[in-house]
Design a protein that fits this description.
single chain; alpha/beta; Immunoglobulin-like; Rossmann fold; TIM Barrel; 3 domains; eight-stranded mixed beta sheet; 37 strands; 23% helix; 32% strand; globular
């Protein structure tokens, strides 16, 4: 029996089932035509696990609570959905629904597991929150179904005596879920939250904090693909997030973005950074009397332009200050009433023109951006626990989270900072340690850059639009609009067709010349490499296909 909530709209005809011929043609033009964008309303089902309710013994109300949380979520966003039961799933739901929600489903039958695999294999999607998917019978590998279904590995229960724990939300490399703020979620530990160590080709949306220390090996939020199907897995349920309104709102936004990502329609996106800036790392030097001129020279000679962090109360060596451009000096401020005055005083005393400041997060929330810009400030760093992505305010103000690390960075889709605080240590040469870390970071394919170069790229990226347009039953176009006054080079366009593609038939052309491309195993997308996108231009990648 299926319980329907709201009136479910009929899904528009499926755009593609299978491709056998693809041709890509890049056309440069300047006139926008009124083509329709591909849209579809996915049909969503929530599984009410009667077996879990019957077998479960730790918290008899957990199933009801989990279902209720999801129903409230869909009702608030006016999203049509249906509640289905064990026998509905066992009879097969491939033709009825596009997305299946598994809230706190701890026990399933063999038949249900087979249907879940078939559901993903047919190109549909699953959101699993707080589900363990045990068989009722005791088995040696109790998490084998999660491993089989989602490709997870080393699944463990959160081992902590604390009533709750922290989980970061960090943007992934492509940032498909529009995460910019580096939010720390508070999650209750009463329901045996699951962690995953190692995610194969899947991607994480954040990591567990162990005793307030960032740990990139343990995550409880994973998304990825299974054949042509997609999944979004969390080791906790929707109602297990116990932080403030901001935490809950952001996590629900993440869920909403995941649903949009699962709409069974082709999508297109670009990476956070171009190839020259992929996995960016910025070196910062904390000024004190132990900082040596020789270290600065060594770094700069090795094409590393560090930033110097100073405070208003320090007497800064003008000799050291002269080693840095105005853009490379960062003034760290701890007050909020006299920000402008402190900036102006520093500029006057040292005959510089600052463009960057470092603030605490609370000070940032109360800062007057317009007023700060009058002093010449165009870059604001704010202290965070985890790395993230920049944002642009007032068209030109570059705001970026500053999460310092004294070790090798662990996240390649965000901006990492390597901070060096000079110390006098007779036993250890701390400068040599820094240089060794830099060499290790380089060997892991991270790219050292500067705030200035990073800001230039992000401004370009913000003025670059991309979308898919539906032309006819057998043709779509990817529209890439460069709204900048300069061209963009070395751009990778990720295209996910949703369905399995005959790679031998795939062709991409630019004015009858083949375009370079490859298949990205992590995202399941075709990556089209574009050497140059002209300024103020509309660029169309035309995709022709036939249905089987």
């Amino acid at each position: 029996m299926t319980r329907l909530l709201f009136n479910q709209k009929k899904n528009p005809k499926t755009l593609f089932k299978h491709f056998n011929i693809f041709s890509f043609l890049l056309i440069l033009c300047g006139i926008l035509m009124p083509y329709n964008t591909i849209t579809a309303q996915p049909k969503i089902a929530i599984l009410y696990s009667e077996l879990t309710e019957k077998v479960g013994h730790t918290n008899s109300n957990k199933v009801i609570d989990a279902i209720t949380a999801w129903e409230l979520f869909f009702m608030q966003d006016k999203i049509p959905y249906a509640v289905i039961y064990d026998d509905d799933l066992e009879s097969g739901i491939d033709d009825e629904f596009d997305i299946l929600i598994l809230p706190s489903v701890n026990f399933i039958t063999n038949e249900q597991m087979e249907e879940l695999q078939n559901f993903l294999a047919s190109g549909k999607s699953i959101i699993s929150t707080g589900s363990k998917l045990f068989y009722q019978e005791n088995i040696l590998d109790e998490y084998q179904n999660l491993e089989t279904l989602f490709g997870l590995s080393n699944i463990k229960v959160m081992d902590s005596d604390n009533l709750s724990f922290s989980h970061s939300l960090i943007p992934n490399n492509l940032n498909q879920f529009r995460m910019y703020d580096d939010l720390i979620l508070q999650i209750t530990n009463k329901n045996q939250v699951l962690l995953c160590e190692g995610v194969n080709n899947n991607q994480s949306c954040g990591y567990i904090f162990d005793d307030n220390n960032f740990n990139s090996d343990k995550s409880s939020i994973i998304f990825g693909t299974f054949g042509t199907g997609r999944f979004f897995w969390t080791g906790f349920d929707l109602d297990d997030v116990i932080g403030g309104k901001s935490d809950i709102s952001t996590f629900k936004q993440l869920i909403s973005d995941a649903i949009k990502w699962m709409d069974n329609q082709p999508d297109v996106y670009i990476a956070n950074f171009n190839e020259a800036l992929s996995s960016p790392v910025i070196v910062t030097l904390q000024y004190n009397n132990a900082l040596e001129l020789e270290l600065i020279d060594v770094l700069q000679k090795n094409n590393i332009r560090p930033n110097l962090i100073v405070t208003p109360d320090q007497k800064v060596s003008k000799e050291i200050l002269s080693k840095f451009s105005n853009d490379e000096i960062i003034l760290e401020l701890s007050g909020d009433d006299t920000l402008n005055e402190l900036i102006e005083n520093f500029n006057r005393d040292y005959e510089v023109s600052l463009s960057s400041i470092l603030l605490g997060k609370k000070i940032l929330e109360n800062a007057d951006f317009n007023s700060l810009q009058t002093t010449g400030i165009n870059k604001i760093l704010y202290k965070e626990q985890v790395p993230g992505l920049p944002r642009i305010f007032n068209k030109e103000l570059f705001v970026i989270p500053y999460a310092i690390s004294e070790n090798i960075p662990s996240s390649n889709g965000v901006v990492n900072f390597l901070n060096y605080n000079p110390k006098i240590n007779c036993d250890v040469n701390t400068e040599d340690e820094l240089l060794e870390k830099i060499n290790q970071i380089k060997s892991k394919q991270y790219n050292f850059t500067s705030l200035t170069e990073l800001g230039k790229w992000w401004n370009l990226k913000e003025r670059f639009a991309y979308e898919i347009k539906y032309i006819s039953d057998n043709e779509i176009e990817i529209w890439l609009t460069n709204k900048n006054s300069i061209s963009i080079s070395d751009l990778n366009v990720f295209f996910n067709s949703v369905v399995v593609i005959d790679r031998k038939s795939l062709k991409k052309k630019k004015k009858n010349s083949l375009l370079e491309y490859y298949f990205d195993s992590a995202s399941g997308a075709i990556v089209i490499k574009l050497e140059n996108i002209n300024s103020n231009s509309l660029n169309k990648i035309k995709i022709n296909f036939t249905l089987i």
